[in-house]
Specification:
There is one protein chain. Helices cover about 70% and strands about 0% of the residues. The chain is mainly α. The protein has one domain. The termini are far apart. Helix 1 crosses helix 3. The chain is built from five helices and no strands.
Length: about 140
């Protein structure tokens, strides 16, 4: 079994903090600029800012130094479904799933850091995203 070292853990955390924040931003932009729903946009913005609070618990230099897009085997690789969206619902659905997956990864990998309490915060974010998805997608 290969042991996960601190640098690899930081790399996973960095990638998933970015992925989670980006997915929430895509959803937020839809509700801000297309639907003009201030309430949902504000909820998403607050959730996104809670990700930044988790990120601030880490040394940004450590996170950035762990980033290695050159060595990432999936840089530049896209699945067909990633390159095509039929409508706004497809965009929202894909980004809700992306946010949920990233939150789950963070929930697991925070457990092996010096701040395992962040795992619970990531879990709370994941469940907030589940609830938002349900409420939003049922209305579309």
């Amino acid at each position: 079994m290969i042991e996960i070292n601190a640098e690899n853990t930081l790399r996973i955390i960095d990638v998933n903090l970015n992925r989670l924040r980006e997915a929430l931003r895509v959803i937020e932009e839809y509700f801000r600029f297309i639907v003009s729903d201030k309430d949902i946009s504000s909820q998403l913005k607050l959730l996104r800012h809670s990700i930044e609070e988790m990120e601030k618990k880490f040394d940004i230099k450590e996170l950035l130094s762990s980033r290695d897009t050159v060595a990432d085997p999936f840089t530049g690789v896209n699945r067909n479904e990633e390159m095509y969206r039929k409508n706004d619902s497809d965009i929202l659905r894909a980004n809700f799933k992306r946010a949920q997956e990233a939150a789950r990864v963070l929930e697991e990998y925070f457990k092996v850091t010096r701040m395992p309490q962040l795992s619970e915060k990531a879990k709370n974010v994941r469940f907030k995203v589940y609830s938002l998805e349900k409420g939003i997608m049922e209305k579309l």
